[in-house]
Specification:
About 35% of the residues lie in helices and about 20% in strands. The chain is of the alpha/beta class and about 475 residues long. Bound molecules: fe (ii) ion (2 copies).
């Protein structure tokens, strides 16, 4: 079967875009040759082309450009020599590969071929509904999850569904997510530089997304991202305490599921030829800043314990009891003060719950403030808490004796650092007795010498860590 006959079948399957002049066309090769096999892929990377050669497939159906420009007209047209282009072109020519781009047609398909793949391969199809935005821009999908998940659980699910090494997020990992919107690219505008509505107000796509986040959308999954529109709004929303979030998977990473689905429908259209989906692999690698010891979480401890904010109504008493077990009477905070603190600042009261028993194994709690020095009044007056404060005064690290010596205290400190760093907090400040200085130094804290604190009639060292 000739390659051109296969492409005709694909075009017949798609809606007829009358007078179409766009990027969907042949990018290289001779379509009149016999097809030896078809590969679908998000992008014809060198790795994908080499895999197609190994599979003896001479037709690549791809969604994104071959030669690095938006319209991706075949043939390099810039006025400098391009060694990468030339080597790629030679590889394609040497093996007689034909590339057909299916971008606009796939998106024009009903249902949209790319989103259909995303919904199928994330398992979200039963919960999805398409929406056309009122401010213009891209259509998107709402996902109403049957049960709430945390931001981290959604990210884990997506990374597993797509096959990714990591992803960026904006928000708090433990915040609940009920409604997700899979949205388009966060360009400031769509096809217009400064679009305006009839009433003169901006018609930016970001305004559409902000209006939906103001309603009930908890988390957005965008295509390309820029920082200065909807993400700036989201950062403010999170720092004002709203449960809103964004997960940035990378445009190609998630659209790839659409090309995985393309393998399914092309196989049905062209049963005569073998069709293979070839993943291009995660577009990105991920560096973690490992200078700070707390950047990497212990998967082992996260498997055994749930780390989250305290539920003050049901768990404050339990925490107060643990405080009495962990500290001698002169150092322990009173039951009353512990409960008051859990209620005033639950998001600053990080607990580790033993997943097997549901019991609290330990916690780390503190209050936020703009103050730079430790003051004992914070132990007894939770009203000093200022949730927008740039620092956190840590008021107690507690681990029940039966849960000690496995790194749980350290992981509570590290998780606290990760949470607060993500929220833009500057420093965590604590006081400790001489015997604990070395331990906190190992965690990354600096010893600032003797503190003004006289809590429990003891001499305390002040230590801090910059996030
Ligand atoms: Fe795309
Ligand atoms: Fe696309």
């Amino acid at each position: 079967m000739k390659i051109s006959e296969i492409i005709d079948r694909i075009l017949d399957y798609h809606p007829d875009l009358e007078g179409y002049q766009g990027c969907d066309e042949y990018k290289c090769g001779d379509p009149e040759q016999k097809c030896t096999g078809i590969v679908t892929a998000i992008s014809p990377t060198i790795g994908v082309i080499r895999q197609a050669i190994r599979l003896n497939a001479n037709l690549l159906v791809v969604h994104e450009p071959t030669f690095y420009t938006t319209m991706d007209e075949p043939g390099w047209f810039e006025d400098f020599s391009n060694s990468v282009y030339e080597e790629k072109n030679k590889l394609l020519a040497d093996h007689g590969i034909v590339i057909w781009r299916d971008h606009d047609h796939m998106h024009a398909h009903q249902p949209d071929g790319i989103f259909e793949g995303v919904l199928r391969y994330t398992g979200w199809k039963p919960y999805a509904r398409a929406v056309m935005p009122e401010y213009g821009g891209f259509g998107h999908f709402y996902i109403d999850l049957p049960e709430p998940k945390t931001v981290r659980e959604v990210a884990d699910h997506l990374m597993r569904s797509i096959g990714m090494n990591g992803c960026r997020y904006l928000g708090r990992p433990d915040d609940p997510v009920r409604k997700i919107a899979i949205v388009g690219h966060l360009y400031p505008a769509f096809n217009e530089h400064t679009p305006k509505r009839a009433d003169g107000k901006p018609k930016e796509y970001s305004v559409q997304l902000i209006s939906e986040l103001e309603k009930d959308v908890d988390l957005i999954l965008p295509g390309e991202t820029i920082d200065w529109t909807v993400l700036s709004y989201l950062k403010d929303a999170v720092e004002l305490g709203r449960c809103k979030a964004m997960i940035s998977l990378g445009h190609f990473n998630w659209e790839a599921l659409g090309m995985k689905y393309a393998k399914d429908w092309i196989s049905e259209l062209v049963p005569e030829v073998k069709v293979t989906y070839v993943p291009a692999g995660d577009m990105f690698g991920y560096f973690l800043n490992e200078e700070q010891p707390w950047t990497k979480r212990s998967e082992q401890l996260f498997e055994r314990y749930e780390f989250r904010s305290i539920h003050p109504d049901t768990e404050a008493e339990e925490a107060a009891e643990i405080e009495q077990i962990c500290f001698p009477p002169n150092e322990a905070c009173s039951r009353h003060h512990m409960i008051e603190r859990a209620k005033a600042a639950p998001d600053f009261f990080l607990v580790a719950i033993d997943k097997e028993t549901g019991k609290m194994a330990g916690f780390l709690n503190g209050l936020a403030t703009d103050e730079e020095k430790f003051r004992d009044e914070f132990f007894t007056d939770a009203s000093l808490h200022d949730e927008r404060g740039k620092n956190v005064l840590l008021l107690g690290l507690d681990v029940l004796p039966e849960y000690r010596l496995q790194g749980l205290g350290r992981e509570l400190v590290y998780e606290y650092c990760r949470r607060e760093q993500a929220l833009g907090r500057e420093k965590l400040i604590l006081t400790c007795l001489d015997a604990k200085i070395r331990m906190y130094e190992k965690f990354g804290f600096k010893d600032l010498g003797l503190s003004a604190s006289v809590w429990g009639g003891e001499a305390w060292h002040e230590m801090d860590i910059e996030l």
